[in-house]
Amino acid sequence: xxxxxxxxxxxxxxxxxDGPLTFSRERRPDQDVLGAAHxxxxxxxxxxxxxxxxxxxxxxxxxWLHGSLKGEWQNQTAGLVSVCPPGQYYQQRIFDILxxxxxxxxxxxxxxxxxGFSERVYLKVYHGVCxxxxxxxxxxxxxxxxxxxxxxxxxxxxxxxxxxxxxxAGPILGGGxxxxxxxxxxxxxxxxxxxxxxxxxxxxxxxxxxxxxxANSVSFMAMPYRMGSEELGQFAQYLLQTVSRGGNPSTYIRxxxxxxxxxLDIAKIITNFHRKWQEVYDGxxxxxxxxxxxxxxxxxxxxxxxEAFSEFRGLCSGMQELHISLTSFHRVTYPRHLxxxxxxxxxxxxxxxxxxxxxEDASILxxxxxxxxxxxxxxxxxxxDGGVAQLKALPTERQRDVxxxxxxx
Length: 409
Prior knowledge:
The protein is an alpha/beta fold. Among the domains are: 110 residues, Transcription Regulator spoIIAA (2-Layer Sandwich), CATH 3.30.750; 119 residues, Rossmann fold (3-Layer(aba) Sandwich), CATH 3.40.50. It is 33% helix and 14% strand.
């Protein structure tokens, strides 16, 4: 919904405009905004947040809502209440809304935000798995007497449940997107890793180089602190790393123009530079000969993931200090790289403490090594149950022990 103070952030020269747009009485506000955007060489994208409904709607349709184990609603900010995907709001009404918006407004793009299960809200509160009416009914129909999981620590939480039923199955979500989307920003209490945006964009562009990557760089300090400006150098780093990895930089600003977001001026410089040299950056693909596989939390428990990610960060930082070019591979998708026509381009692949691979992935790795590829496996990478090596390429048949702490050496 566009209010009377809605204004365009920048014109085609990247200059911030002063003063609100003036709406015409004869036309709808969206026509004025679209016309103003197009006259400045800009495209206007619509956004819908399908996660939440107003309190009045929630009271009328409790079967649409995300429910806690105690039957409580999941309350968001501004009196909004979370809904769950199996409910009729997601399954039916959301398509009515999308049909109305796309029929009435001839926007240039469309972004549907947060369409999954919401176990944790913006305010950092963990509510656990949905126990609402729709989720409960579907679970009972599927699982019978098996109790609906409470949270990520339960044995029948989806990741653990699937791993037990199908140990070789790897969860892949969102692989068919026409535009990859990554949101880069800091949050109070989150450990800062300065290569995070670079490696995330790298893993996306290397997987499907024909699909554009949009890195949405947030100008404020996460949602609960949205009035606090992100540190200037850190914010610029998001945009520069995105550009250097072949992604498209985007700046996300919220609230009013009176809020002093210091990063906007540097964002204008970087964005204009990217647009000026778009012929150079368009279609930019990774050319590094070394691939570093990043861990995936969906295939590990929390402790395993923390150990693997620590190993990944250490190897990534070390190779950068040695000026060794590398491409990040995603844990789920890296076998695709080794099967691709240009797989011989990757001379070295590094597995940082990734644990037991799928049997299919183990075969692909062994075949790739047999064809001349060089594999570096650290920690428990390539090791299955009982310490038995799953990879023929490993120099040992069994792993007797793992030393995780310096004091043990």
